[in-house]
Structures are given as structure tokens and as C-alpha cells.
Design a protein that fits this description.
The chain is α/β, with parallel strands linked by helices. It folds into two domains: about 5-180, 3-Layer(aba) Sandwich (Rossmann fold), CATH 3.40.50; about 185-390, Orthogonal Bundle (N-(1-d-carboxylethyl)-l-norvaline Dehydrogenase, domain 2). About 45% of the residues lie in helices and about 15% in strands. The chain has helices spanning about 10-25, 35-50, 95-105, 120-125, 160-170, 190-205, 210-220, 225-230, 235-245, 255-265, 290-295, 305-325, 335-345, 355-360, 360-370, and strands at about 5-10, 30, 55, 70, 85, 110-115, 135-140, 150-155, 175-180, 275-280, 280-285. The protein has a nine-stranded mixed beta sheet, with helices on both faces. α4 (about 120-125) links the parallel β6 and β7 (about 135-140). α6 (about 190-205) packs across α9, α8 packs across α9 (about 235-245) and α12 packs across α15 (about 360-370). The chain is globular. The relative contact order is 0.09.
Amino acid sequence: MIKGIVLVGAGTVGRAILAAHLDVGVSVHLVDRDANAIRSAADEVNHALHRSVPVRVSDGFSVGDSLSAVSLDCGKTMIETPTIVIESIAERLDVKRAFFADAEKLFGDGAILCSNTSTLRIGDIASSLLRPQRFAGMHFFMPVDQRPAVEIIRGAATDDRTISICAEHASRLKKEPLIAPDTPGFIVNRLLSPYLNQAMLLLCHGIAAERIERAALQYGMPMSPLELIDTIGTRTTFDAGRVYWQSFPQRIAPAPMLGKMIKRGRMGKASGGGFYDYVDGERSDAISPEIAVLADTYHRPIGEVSDIDLVQLLAIPMLIEAAVVHQEGRVTSLASFDTAMRGGLGFSPNRSWTKWFADRADGEIVQAIDRWKQDFKSMNGDSIRFDFLTA
């Protein structure tokens, strides 16, 4: 029986999670259907870490449908107990349910099973398990090496011991555990989805990508929201956005671009092109001409938009969502919102996100909502209370 950390999925996100483990000296058993993907992942991570991590094939180890595995030994002792299985495979409910049903049989009573899902409810995945109390979400954020938080999602059946072990493991990776409810988008994606959608709508309304990027940086975000979509991946962003739209249609009018981009093969940074073009991982200065033409097909002018307006149009939909989450009783701590923004989304470490809004007069926020709510469903905050910021 293999003990220690088992990471399933050698794709873009899986590789980033692998690097996070090896970088702090935690050995990992990497598992994937494609043995070549595993070797490629090992080579990529070794190159990124500027050192060689021995790779040992784990003969006779399989999970489900012919998944092979290798061990990446960082030179330190394997964590013998408990076995933690972190899954980062296709974002499909049927695939994840089938995988975890197999993994539960293989690893037995002692294993803690974790999904890196960003869009699916933990309770829905756990319906295939005999021991759902040992199952939780462990959601890493891209780019993993730049995001110091991990969401730990508690399903309805998840027990305290499982949450404690997951949180301890996140801390071992030098990441801050953020305990999140099992609701659509958890915490971070619940705030992120309206922000990314708003950026795409602004592009469709004729706002230059350069202005959107400047506004995001002024707000306190680490990069353009369009570049962030490229980093996350077009498909993953589309899936997460669909979950948000289906759950909260009153607060979002989905931007039309992602579906078209998927059909055109513009899948994000990993594929060499999303909103921007990428050569050897380096982003182009301007968005792709193909994307500029696509955005122009949806062009609907909305009048003059100042730089201050742009910051408000990006920021306030996130505030509205946080206020709703607070009113629902899902998150009651301002610190949790700050951790989500700073640790999950890279918001400026030199300022508090909640204080950024608290320092602004209520009138300024209300005026912006009144001005833009007819143009953007995400600015519909008439029934929203913001006093939680100063409570």
C-alpha cells in the first residue's frame, strides 16, 4: 500500500500542485492515465525548481481505469500517515465520482480524499462514497506558486478530523488554509466570477484591454483580469462562470466570448493563446488581433467611462457578492474575505480588501451602483447592505 501524498492528474494545475509539494520537501506519488504526461510533468517541475527530483516508477499501483503512477522523491522521508489523495482531473461530476469510488476502495479507511474542484459541490461528488466524512475540497489557486492560500471545503458529511488534516497539510505547504462553505464557487470563485465576467463585458463594450489592466492594477489586483483568465484556462473559467450564472442569474449577464474562444482553440496560456498570445510563457503586450475582432462583434457603447469608473466597475461586483455571502451567513468573518482576496486572488498584500471599501464613503459606492445598474446586472445592489464592512 502506498502511503503519503498521492496527487492524481498531471495536467497544468496538477503540475503546479506537484511543484508546491516538492518545493517544500514533500515527496509525492504522481498519478495519471498518461505515463508520458507524468514524465513531462516531472521534467517541467525539475526545470522550474532548478534541481533534479528523482523519479521512481511505482510498479503495480493503479487507481481505477489503468492509471499509472510514479514517485517523486524529494530526498526527505515520505509522510507515512495519513495517506492524502489530492485529485486534479477533468472537471466533470461523473468522472470525479467514479474516480473517488475507486480511490476509496484502494486506499481504505485511513485515507483522506480531497478534490481540487473549483466548480463542483463537494456534497455532489461525495454521493459516490461510503465514507464521505473523510472527503473534503482542497482548492488550490493559479498560479499556485504565487497564491498563498488554499480553500478547504467542508461537505455536509465532512468531519472535523478531515478538515484539521487538510488544513495542517496546507500549512505544511506554507499556504494559509481558508475554510469555505460547500456552496457554488465556495468563497474565492464566488467573488472572482463576477469580476472576470465584468472585465470581458467591458472589453465587449469597447473599453481597451490596456485600460482594463491599468484599472485592475490600481484596484490592487496583480494582473489584468484577461491575463488571469488565460492563466486559469479558458475552459476552467467557462465552467466556473457557468456554475455562477446558473446559481445567481439575477446578478450576471454572461459575457459571450469564452464559448467562441473554446471553439477557436484559444484555451489560455498553456495552449499559447487566450486573450493574449504567449511565446515561451511570455505574454504579448496587446490582446490578440483575433480577440480584438471577436470583441468588436459584440460592441455596444455605454458612454464615457472614466478611469475611476473602471475601477468601480471591476471592484463593486465583488463587494456586492461578498455582502450577499455575508447576509446568507456563509461567511461571517471579514478576515476570511481578506484571506480569499489576498491569498486566493493575489490582491495587494499591503492593504486590506475590506478596508479598501470601508475607507470609501457609502455614498460613492451607492452612486456608482445607481449610475451603472442599468448597464450591468452585476451592479444591481439596490437590496444589498454594506454595513458588514464596519460592523
